[in-house]
Design goal:
Elements (H helix, E strand, L loop, with lengths): L4 H8 L3 H8 L7 H13 L6 H7 L5 E6 L5 H16 L3 E6 L4 H9 L8 E4 L6 H5 L6 E5 L9 E4 L2 H14 L5 E6 L7 H15 L5 E4 L5 H13 L5 E4 L2 H13 L9 E5 L3 H5 L5 E5 L1 H16 L9 E3 L2 E4 L9
Parallel strand pairs: 1-2, 1-3, 3-4, 4-5, 5-11, 6-7, 6-8, 8-9, 9-10
Antiparallel strand pairs: 10-12
Helix pairs in contact: 1-2, 1-3, 5-13, 8-9, 10-11
């Protein structure tokens, strides 16, 4: 048998209720009493029974995180930060992979398979705002990414338009006049791609420069390689903003394989700040979303909904980002 609240109460010379108040973090406990109870908790090595507590509260202590691709470095890194933030709430995280499939995303919205969870953090690719609004499952929900913004759920992301504009301005500031955007998607009417394309276009228009836009089907290394190879067969750009780092790494390989130099002939930049880009040759200039802040905001918003503090409209919250200038855009010389 483990240590009980009653054991702690006897040692501290207080009531079981007082010990419970200290364990649960209630503020209205006298400092001297709190110190005495905390000393007793430490001496007896008390460990709360979280399962029993969650059961009494009608909760599981488990949340779900649904992401498109777990093998994509950005989502893998973000998952770690969500797990860390959830651990501060003593939550476990069940991770679901959707592959961006409409059917699987609908299944997530209808209820996370057979798991009973207290809340869901979800990065959708295929569903839209109308399907989200028609959702019948009442599990607390927070959205990540840009597929559904200004929708009927709390949402956290970076400002993709401004981030894309900033990285494009950086490339233009190097004296590059033929700056391409690699990552547009013909089928995308909402989400990340059009927002990053809008930021690129704003910067190009501000400097009176011509647009060069390369489309891709997906945001993988192979897509970046193929799109960059096609660009090199035409009138070659002297700089390229790739809409994520995987595209940029594929594009870098295409440039180097053609016998050209990065950044001497073609400067390259991405967006996501995945670890691979910090160790590529050359290292990759990128926009670094604050993944830790994204995760913390998402978990905080989810906790508010789980706790029943839902008397407010869905929130759009922007996390920060930084421009990380590395070797792939070092000044030519």
């Amino acid at each position: 048998m483990g240590t009980s609240l009653r054991d702690v109460a006897v040692l501290a010379g207080v009531s079981v209720k007082t010990v419970s108040n200290v364990v649960n973090g209630y503020a209205h406990v006298a400092p001297a009493t709190r110190a005495r109870v905390e000393e007793a908790l430490a001496r007896l090595d008390y460990r709360p029974n979280l399962s029993a507590r969650n059961l009494r509260q009608g909760r599981t202590g488990v949340i779900a995180l649904a992401l498109p691709e777990l093998d994509a470095p950005y989502f893998a890194e973000l998952s770690r930060f969500v797990i860390d933030a959830a651990a501060e709430q003593r939550w476990l995280v069940v991770i679901e992979q959707t592959d961006g499939s409409l059917e699987r995303e609908r299944q997530i919205l209808d209820g996370v398979r057979d798991h009973r969870v207290d809340g869901l953090i979800f990065s959708p690719i295929a569903i839209g705002a109308d399907e989200l609004a028609a959702r019948t499952d009442d599990t607390a929900l927070v959205l990540l990414g840009e597929r559904i913004h200004d929708g009927p759920a709390d949402h956290v992301a970076i400002d993709n338009v401004r981030a894309a504009r900033d990285i494009t301005e950086h490339l233009i500031g190097l004296g590059r006049a033929r700056v391409a955007a690699l990552g547009a998607q013909d089928s995308s009417i909402s989400g990340t791609a059009p927002l990053r394309l809008a930021g690129y276009r704003q910067a190009m228009a501000a400097h009176g420069l011509p647009e060069i836009v390369a489309t891709v089907e997906r945001y993988h290394r192979a897509d970046g390689f193929a799109a960059m190879t096609a660009l090199l067969e035409g009138e070659r750009p002297d700089a390229v903003f790739c809409f994520n780092d995987l595209l940029a790494l594929g594009a870098m390989r295409a440039v180097l394989s053609s016998g050209l130099r990065v950044p001497g002939d073609v400067a390259l930049a991405g967006l996501d700040d995945i670890e691979d880009g910090r160790y590529s040759t050359p290292t990759l200039t990128t926009v670094a979303p604050d993944k830790s802040e994204l995760a913390r905001i998402a978990v905080d918003l989810l906790k508010r909904r789980i706790d029943g503090r839902a008397g407010y409209a869905p929130q759009e919250v922007r996390a920060g980002y930084r421009l990380m200038v590395r070797e792939s855009t070092a000044p030519a010389g």
